[in-house]
Amino acid sequence: MLRKTTLVTVYIFAFPAITLHRSFGDYTATYGYFFEVVAGIRFLISIGLHQPLHLYASL
Fold first, then answer.
1. Domain count for the chain
2. 32: which of 11, 13, 21, 48 is 20 to 30 A away, CA to CA?
3. Where are the transmembrane segments (predicted)?
């Protein structure tokens, strides 16, 4: 269940980035990395940053 949710989340955040890249081209060549970082941060927040910490603490 978690895997399916993760894939959906990745699609939701990745699709706009792909669309922006195709729309602006050279513009996102400069700022593309920034968009990737933001998408990654939003993804981590969406799955819950506390989960990895909780798993680490349980070890």
1. 1
2. 48
3. 7-24
